Amino acid sequence: MKATACLRKEYGALLLCLAAFVFIFVLRYMDNLEFQPKSTIIMVDHQSVSTHPHPHMNRSFCTFQPLSPEDALEERLILDSTAWPETPLLPAPIFLEQTSDPAHSTFTILPGRKGGEWHVGDQLEVMIQTSDFQGRPKKSGGDFLLARLHNRKLEAGVAGQVVDHLNGSYSAVFSLLWEGDAQVEVTLVHPGEAISVLNRLNREQPDRIYFKSLFRSGSLSETTLCDVCLRPTQQPLCNYTDLRTGEPWFCYKPKSLSCDTRINHYMGGSKENFLNANDEKLFQRGVNLKVSIRASGPASVTVLPQGQLKVKSSTVTSGPSGYYYQGVWRALGGTTVHEFSASAISQCLKGKAVHMYGDSTVRQWFEFLNAALPGLKEFDLHSPKQAGPYMSLDYTNNILLTSRFHGPPIRIVVVSTSELRYIANELDGLIGGPNIVVVFGIWAHFGTFPMEIYIRRLQSIRRAVVRLLDRAPDTLVVIRTGNPKDLNLFVSLTNSDWHSLQCNKVLRAMFKGLNVHLIDAWEMTLAHHLPHNLHPPPPIIKNMVNHLLSYICPQ
Ligand SMILES: *[C@@H]1O[C@H](CO)[C@@H](O)[C@H](O)[C@H]1NC(C)=O
Ligand SMILES: *[C@@H]1O[C@H](CO)[C@@H](O)[C@H](O)[C@H]1NC(C)=O
Ligand SMILES: *[C@@H]1O[C@H](CO)[C@@H](O)[C@H](O)[C@H]1NC(C)=O
Fold first, then answer.
1. Which helix (H) or strand (E) holds 98?
2. Which ligand has the minimum distance to the alpha carbon of residue 168?
3. Which pTM does this prediction carry?
4. All domains of the chain in start order, with CATH
5. What is the pLDDT at residue 381?
6. Are 552 and 349 in contact (CB under 8 A)?
7. If we measure between CA atoms, which residue out of 515, 518, 539 comes closest to residue 527?
8. Could you give the CA distance from residue 495 to residue 448 in angstroms, rounded to a whole number?
9. How many A from CA of 368 to the centre of ligand 1?
């Protein structure tokens, strides 16, 4: 299969124009990561409209395998288009005082186009002005803000699209989708300076969470450090790079045992004091970490029924992927989400096999279906809790459900090496067909690494998806995005919402144009009234599963 076939459709035309530059890109990529191309903006992203794609960051000690010219070009384009606006470095020790302070920042609802009236189908625009801890308006952008419009009584909610004007002010744009009150909520997740810190940590200290393996043979056993990339030392390495996917993985070689004697993988722990106290102040709960920004005036509007003027279609083009109404997720852009009773689920899944791959947030769907379907019985594979794999069967309706973790890095309990499988290789083992549903979600274990690691993982998964859809085009493939979570200092530094958001952008870019379906867990969590959680609570999972079932059984 030609690798170009995988590339995003929009890249197709660009590829032709840029073909001549492929070699330049590749050469520059390989010998100098600090190369700053003139910003050719391909995908305009709301929070990252500009600027210098590669600040003078220290090169990671991760040495990335060379890619094919097409993959290298795609990696470059994706890194450029998702580059976060650069935040000017501020001098310590007055560092914190000059960063955005949610308590001093405000948002203002801009007047509606029709003389202060809003109708269903209109857009609501909010201007956000950030200020520092001394109350001085910020002059530069780069802060990470989230916006939501909601009505608790109607159990309605929708995510806003945030635009960074790069001058300290931001816009949040909301689609008005229900009649009645709509309350605006704006949250500072991280000041821009915190994003610079996260970027630096992922370059310089991707091993702040570290992994280990036990090696054993006879009565000898040894434990060594393992990772996607290990710091160069005199110690010899065991190279576990997957020969089929090219996924890198290494352990330091045990002194007295061979590389073949590795029996498991687990998270060793996390380093201490990888951030200085001054930088830690950028991540304070209740101060500048996921803290609400108040309104300068009213924080809500009343939305009237849809007006004569039809403006609805323009709302959806770059708008939200859906919204909640009476607690039920309504997807926008073509898919109708239905609600499924237990018997409707059984009917829908009758004769089907659903294979789920990824992290624990995908396993939640497996667990939800197991609990929802009385006829579905989990088969005891004697798997360790968390690690899996898992399998459930409904003999009467001939339903098979499986769930398996993605390949390393995995930050959980001990996993046997014989159960470590890359999603791409698992997909290659499927015949596919109209009765096969493939679901995957992979994001939560990559938060400490440079984005190249995630891009390459998705490139290998996408190749396998393309092969699967080539041999069985009627296979249904559904992808779960990452979601926002409850943040404290440690979670921010190892698995921040910012990193998840960036992963989602990469995921969208990478699978655009393929016959796959996305479930936007990001917006489904953001728009909901329940608090953000790495593992969203049951009402949100129920909506996600209904969304999945609506792809499997459109009515
Ligand atoms: C790069 O790393 C070195 C050593 O850790 C440090 O001294 C230097 O300031 C860093 N440069 C930048 C631009 O961060
Ligand atoms: C920032 O830029 C936006 C968009 O160009 C503009 O509307 C706004 O007035 C600017 N704010 C300041 C303080 O210059
Ligand atoms: C590890 O193995 C892969 C696959 O054989 C190879 O391409 C790569 O160069 C090796 N890496 C190191 C550091 O030895």
1. none
2. 2
3. 0.88
4. 37-66+209-270 (no CATH), 99-196+284-304 (2.60.40.10), 338-552 (3.40.50.1110)
5. 93
6. yes
7. 539
8. 7
9. 47
